UniProtKB/TrEMBL annotation, chain A:
Gene name linked to the record: AP5S1
Domain of life according to the entry: Eukaryota
GO biological process annotation, one example: endosomal transport
Any one Pfam family match given in the protein's UniProt record, by short name: AP-5_subunit_s1
Name of the protein described by the UniProt record: Adaptor related protein complex 5 subunit sigma 1
From TrEMBL, chain B:
Domain AP-5 complex subunit zeta-1 N-terminal TPR: 1-279
Organism: Prolemur simus (Greater bamboo lemur)
Signal sequence interval, chain numbering: none
Superkingdom as given in the UniProt entry: Eukaryota
Gene encoding the protein: AP5Z1
Record domain AP-5 complex subunit zeta-1 ARM repeats: where: 320-437
The protein, known as: Adaptor related protein complex 5 subunit zeta 1
């Protein structure tokens, strides 16, 4: 099962280090078991920990993506689209997976699968023994849906104030973090449902 | 896309002040109280979501606002965007004590699902997980199998099980198993009717027709995730969800419970039941629910395997087929572990599958779970695992090292299944050259994995070869890049480093004369021999500036450390000697990537000292090689750390206390060699080509010479002469420029101290060659500081003494 889904910024590999890696959206499905903490403000501390875990994952994904782009010799501006009409070639987007050991930063060992599209990083934090092929496919699907339905290719749009659409997509395609075996027709059916609730 | 506008928006959200937030909350509350929840409300909620989620610190929202959010979420009729935003805000705030939602307030399953997501995010402080589980189960039980919207609830169950396996009782598990069985096996085989909400419609006016397979043919058997149609019925949705959570459910409700390791006595049981079980499946209905579910799961997996032979019309379906194959194999593995009677039927099916997939590079990732299955159950069924490994370890890494996902999965496969290899670990250890290809190409992602895997790969028979391979890892990266350029293009986008077009070495790479070396570098199995790849280093020099090569070079020191900590566990005396010789030889013969040599030298010199400490007698055993090393050092500056370590080790361990075989002759021979080296480094004029050697080298040479003299006292006059010459040299006016002020000062001071020490030969011997009993309670663990301290102390004593004596 998926523990978390996040979208964050990806800075170009050779750019000067301006700014930080920003998590633009994150959704944690369920919560890690909180240790018995009698101190006050335990809830706030848990939330802080959760946010920091997500940020740690985002930073690591950014660095992996940057290293992969450098290694393949792609120019730094490769993450920007050529034009808003071209479909984004997701099968050739930089992607990868890495493992996080127990305690660093999550309690359990987890695997992260990531994808880099349009200077945005998309990542799924999975349990250690999940079906990676399915996770990869789901991540690609989510990226495609978000790019399409949030019109991310059009200049000037951003996803910061569109959380309702992102949530709508997640509740259908990754409900409660459950990876679904959706064939093409099911995907189309769900997309139609989504478009009905969120007209363009 | 992250523009400056977005950055400032994020900034505003993070920096909003408490007062402003309070005003905003009251605006939100006002909007939510209205009858008509329009676009203004949605817009405000979007902003509120951003404010809450943008910062990792807590945001205090007004109680009224939070209560209204909760109430809006649970309204009987509420547009979905609003519901979803309320839920998202409450979830983002969690865990929080101000969330007072309860499952009782929900009117339909969609709301229940949203409320559950918030409750499950509270961290289970108040047993929320169990409460949610009970509620959802009640909802699942109370409705008919074809009731609307149950599909919102199954994922919640799945999540609950993952978070807290004990949240369900025995009878509840049994009941849910029954429902899952129905959904998996008896979903409708007719297509659903079109409806805007996608709900099941009872109108029978138009028969939409049967479901189809992914290749367009009419479906031949029951509905599965690989069945398609234009519209779907509710139970077909539930079929998809049930399969998606099947493996986790089987593990949860299995006899051994979640996460239990394979028991050794299972194989005995497997062996005995094989002869009894027939090939036909049991009559379904008479089995208890759990066993019935397993039977249905088995049939489902077999059907998926059959369906995956069809040629899908759409790319998305083709990808799904592969994911389904992986899942089917994983589920079959679980089934066979829980109930060995499935083994007989499964094996023939999976062997056929393996045969079909071996030749297809697109399906290579399915081979990994298959291999794991054969590893786990192979013994019971006398499967020829050799053939499985052969293909997997020999061909796959050599051809597909460039795929980052495959590389990751392959290495995980090795790591996670070490215990299953048992006595066959040599398959893994002999395949290290192929495994290193994954590492060389994908070093940032895989370095940590290999550091964990190395202890299993390291073997006394291949250690020397492996060390060479690790030192040549960046060279392997370069060679793999050139190899990719030579192959026919595998994909649209080139896999090699596109910033380097037509490297000059590509032609030379194909030179027949070098093919022997190239093939050795690119070999798939440990060959048992080593070859000097210096000509390849030179040839591949243009590639040394590639980013991928540099990344690999950065990873090598870490890997070397991991290698040495593993190899010292298994190394015999002879192997230790071989490794030391390797270190000395290779320190001069490394692929020239910027900064690579310096970093590797640091590691090698540290490891050299560690090996000497483990086996001090190697200094005496390898005396001839060490002498040769000292004689052959041309560029001391380039190998300063190695030279320092070797010289120090000689001074420390070339004595009778460490090896009885140490002779005076040996000490004298070393003395001469070190003396010659000292002259060479101090007399030669520094130039641009040969920079001055660091002062540490000079001081360690002087100290070692003195140590040797203290053991063979005839040498004392010679060394005293040497030291006074050095002191004079350091004191002369033009001396400071080559070594710098500090360096010259250090040389002068050390020379003086050593000279003072030599005035008392017996004390010198005690200080410079302490016996082991004296060494052990040393208070300074860092040996580099202990001796200078001793020298300084003695020196001061001697000078004081000299002052008191007449003349």
């Amino acid at each position: 099962m998926v523990h978390a889904f996040l979208i964050h910024t990806l800075r170009a590999p050779h750019a000067e280090d301006t700014g930080l890696c920003r998590v633009l959206y994150s959704c944690v499905f369920g919560a890690e078991k909180s240790p018995d903490d009698p101190r006050p403000h335990g809830a706030e501390r848990d939330r802080l920990l959760r946010k920091e875990q997500i940020l740690a994952v985002a930073r690591q994904v950014e660095s992996m993506c940057r290293l992969q782009l450098q290694a393949s010799g792609r120019p730094p501006m490769d993450l920007q689209p050529q034009s808003s009409d071209e479909p984004v070639p997701l099968h050739e987007a930089p992607r990868g997976a890495f493992r996080l050991a127990a305690g660093d930063p999550f309690q359990e060992p987890r695997t992260v699968v990531w994808l880099g599209v349009l200077s945005l990083g998309f990542a799924l934090v999975l349990d250690a023994h999940d079906n990676l092929l399915l996770a990869e496919g789901t991540l690609r699907l989510l990226a495609r849906l978000l790019v399409d339905h949030l019109r991310l290719l059009a200049p000037g749009t951003n996803l910061l104030l569109r959380a309702d659409r992102i949530e709508g997509i997640l509740t259908r395609f990754l409900p409660h973090g459950q990876l679904l075996f959706l064939n093409d027709q099911f995907v189309q059916g769900l997309e139609k449902e989504f478009s009905a609730a969120w007209p363009r | 896309m992250f523009t400056a506008g977005a950055e400032s928006l994020l900034q505003q959200a993070r920096e909003i002040q408490a007062e402003e937030l309070r005003k905003f909350c009251s605006r939100v509350s006002k909007l939510l109280r209205e009858e008509d929840l329009g676009p203004d409300a949605i817009d405000c909620l979007r902003r509120l979501f951003l404010i809450v989620s943008a910062t990792k610190y807590n945001r205090r929202l007004d109680k009224t606002c939070v209560d209204l959010l909760q109430a809006t979420l649970c309204l009987p009729a509420c547009p979905e965007p609003l519901q979803v935003l309320c839920a998202a805000i409450l979830r983002e705030m969690s865990p929080s004590d101000s969330v007072t939602l309860s499952c009782d307030h929900t009117h339909n399953t969609r709301q229940l699902s949203l409320v559950a997501s918030i409750l499950l995010a509270q961290g289970d402080r108040r047993e929320e997980v169990r409460t949610v589980a009970q509620h959802v189960l009640r909802a699942l039980e109370s409705r008919q199998p074809e009731g609307p919207s149950l599909r919102h609830l199954l994922p919640v169950m799945s999540k609950v099980m993952g978070l807290s396996p004990g949240a369900l009782q025995e009878d509840q598990t049994t009941l849910l198993s029954k429902r899952l069985t129905d959904w998996l096996r008896y979903a409708s085989v007719q297509q659903g009717l079109p409806h805007s909400g996608g709900f099941f419609s009872t109108s029978r006016a138009r028969q939409p027709g049967p479901i189809t397979e992914v290749d367009g043919a009419v479906a031949t058997d029951f509905f599965t995730v690989l069945s398609t149609g234009h519209h779907f019925t509710e139970d077909q949705w539930l079929n998809v969800q049930a399969f998606s959570m099947l493996r986790a459910w089987l593990l949860h409700s299995g006899p051994e419970g979640p996460g239990a390791p394979d028991a050794d006595d299972k194989s005995e049981l497997e062996g005995s039941t094989l002869s009894v079980i027939s090939a036909t499946s049991t009559t379904g209905r008479l089995l208890p629910p759990r066993e019935r579910l397993r039977e249905v799961a088995f049939e489902y997996c077999q059907r998926l395997i059959e369906q995956s032979t069809r040629r899908a019309l759409r790319k998305g379906d083709s990808d799904l087929q592969k994911a389904c194959l992986v899942e089917a194999v994983l589920v079959l593995d679980v089934l066979c572990r829980q109930d060995p009677s499935f083994l007989y039927r499964t094996l023939s099916c999976l062997k056929a599958l393996h045969g079909r997939l071996s030749g297809d590079p697109a399906c290579v990732r399915v081979l990994l779970p298959l291999a794991r299955f054969f590893l786990t159950h192979g013994e019971a069924a006398a499967v020829d695992s050799e053939a499985v490994y052969q293909h997997l370890f020999t061909r796959v890494p050599a051809e597909l090292f460039h795929s980052p996902m495959l590389a990751f999965e392959f290495v995980q496969f090795c790591r996670d299944n070490l215990h299953l290899f048992g006595g066959n670990l040599s398959i893994l250890t002999l395949s290290f050259p192929n495994l290193f290809k994954f590492l060389a190409w994908n070093s940032p992602a895989l370095t940590a994995e290999f550091v964990a895997l190395l202890p299993a790969l390291v073997d006394a028979s291949t250690a020397v070869e492996m060390l060479h391979a690790l030192l040549d890892l960046p060279c392997l990266t370069a060679a793999l890049d050139l190899q990719l350029r030579s192959w026919p293009a595998a994909s649209e986008r080139p896999l090699w480093d596109t910033s380097l077009r037509n490297p000059s070495c590509l032609e030379a790479f194909r030179d027949p004369q070098l093919q022997g070396l190239v093939q050795h570098l690119l070999r798939s199995k440990a060959s048992g021999t080593t070859q000097r790849l210096a000509p390849l280093h030179q040839l591949l020099q243009p590639m040394a500036s590639c980013a991928r090569v540099a990344q690999c070079a950065e990873a090598v020191p870490t890997l070397l450390h991991a290698f040495f900590s593993a190899v010292t566990q298994v190394a015999s005396g002879a192997l230790t000697n071989q490794l030391v010789l390797l270190l000395l030889e290779r320190s001069d013969s490394l692929y020239r990537v910027p900064q690579f040599e310096a970093r590797v030298h640091r590691v090698l010199s540290a490891q050299f000292l560690a090996l000497c400490k483990l086996k001090p007698s190697l200094v005496v055993e390898l005396a001839r090689d060490l002498l040769e090393f000292l004689g052959s050092v041309n560029d001391v500056h380039g190998r300063a750390s190695m030279v320092t370590s070797v010289v120090w080790a000689i001074g420390e361990y070339l004595s009778v206390t460490y090896d009885r075989r140490c002779t005076v002759e040996q000490i004298n021979k070393f003395f001469e060699a070190l003396e010659a080296l000292l002259f060479e480094v101090t007399q030669s004029r520094p130039s641009a080509a040969l920079p001055q050697c660091p002062p540490q080298v000079v001081t360690v040479l002087m100290t070692t010479l003195t140590k040797l003299a203290s053991r063979s006292q005839d040498l004392i006059p010679r060394v005293s002469l040497l030291l006074s010459k050095m002191r004079t040299l350091a004191q002369s006016p033009g001396a400071s420029s080559p070594h710098g002020e500090e360096g010259t000062e250090a040389i002068r001071t050390r020379a003086t101290e050593l000279l003072n020490l030599l005035k008392m030969p017996s004390v010198a011997q005690f200080v410079l060659t302490p016996s082991p009993e004296v060494c052990s309670p040393r208070y300074h663990r860092d040996v580099n500081t202990a001796l200078p301290l001793a020298l300084r102390t003695v020196s001061r004593l001697v000078e004081k003494e000299a002052g008191l004596l007449p003349g």
